[in-house]
Specification:
InterPro entries: P-loop_NTPase. It comes from Pseudonocardia petroleophila. This is MinD-like ATPase involved in chromosome partitioning or flagellar assembly. The chain is of the alpha/beta class. It has one domain: 3-Layer(aba) Sandwich (Rossmann fold), CATH 3.40.50. It is about 40% helix and about 15% strand. The chain contains 10 helices and 7 strands. A 7-stranded parallel β-sheet has the order 3-2-4-1-5-6-7, sandwiched between helices. Strand 6 (about 175-180), helix 8 (about 190-195) and strand 7 form a beta-alpha-beta unit. The chain is globular. It starts with a strand and ends in a 13-residue tail after the last helix.
């Protein structure tokens, strides 16, 4: 199962959201940093304690001689005791230029024994990871609730659907694209954002700077971290997204002409 997360212009906290959700995912999960602009999970959450050789670039090099599934276990690390397993991202933006993204997506969609939560960074037109998005069971756009951010999300969603080949399929139900709102009611509610963006909101996460700093900057967890507003909400949202991704895969598999993992053969 592959669930890909994106941000629009001005959106907060995709990496933090992915890590918080992966830590509370109802099944085994790996957080994979695919941001073409370069990953910072090991520098932030990991505090620079892990060597740079553990990452997507090194995995792809090894995958030339063996299957990616066989090699991935050697490159996944747990940067902190409370962390989910993580596959670190690119050390520099230029490294993403020559990546065989469709091959990456085809492998990540069915990693044995684990769901993949992919941090794909900020969405731009002709996004280099669009091939991964097209392989995903579910694509999640992370947004805030201010007018500026909601407006950017509303403009970005049709572009994402175009990349997925689902242009014109604005959905309030169970399509392959959904929204997660960080800090709702500031000022717009999740319901208002769903209506304005013509897209279902799968759930929300609170603005919880203290708990978020654990994921973004490797801050100490403290005794109350697992009971923080962020982690409690992440548990609820993780279950909803896992269920939604399973439903989307089942729906895709039932379409006429569906091939491997429900992808329609064209």
């Amino acid at each position: 199962m592959l669930i890909s997360f994106l941000s629009a212009k001005g959106s907060p906290g995709v990496t933090t959201s992915v890590l918080a959700l992966a830590a509370r995912w109802p099944r085994a999960a790996i957080a994979v940093d695919l941001d073409p602009q370069g990953g910072d999970t090991l520098a932030g959450l990991g505090g620079g304690r892990h060597p740079a050789r553990h990452g997507i670039v090194e995995l792809l090099v090894e995958a030339r001689n063996e299957s990616l599934h066989a090699a991935i276990g050697r490159h996944v690390v747990r940067p902190a005791p409370h962390s989910p397993p993580v596959l670190a991202g690119f050390g520099a933006p230029g490294q993403a230029a020559n990546v065989p993204w469709d091959l990456v997506g085809s492998h990540l969609v069915d990693v044995p024994g684990a769901d993949i939560l992919a941090d794909c960074g900020r969405f731009v037109l002709d996004h280099s990871v669009s091939a991964v998005l097209r392989r995903s069971d579910l694509v999640v756009l992370v947004a805030g609730s201010s007018l500026r951010v909601v407006r950017a999300a509303a403009r970005t969603l049709p572009l994402i659907r175009r990349e997925l080949g689902t242009a014109g399929e604005a959905n309030h139900g169970h399509g392959p694209v959904t929204l997660v709102i960080i800090g709702p009611d500031m000022p717009y509610t999740a319901e208002e954002i769903a209506g304005g963006c013509q897209t279902e909101v799968a759930g929300t996460l609170p603005r919880d700077p203290v708990a978020a700093s654990v994921w973004s900057d490797g801050a100490p967890t403290g005794r109350g971290f697992q009971r923080s507003r962020l982690q409690r909400a992440a548990g609820v949202l993780a279950r909803a997204l896992a269920e939604r991704a399973t439903e989307c895969r089942g729906a895709a598999s039932s379409r006429p002409g569906a091939g491997l993992n429900g992808r329609v053969l064209r």
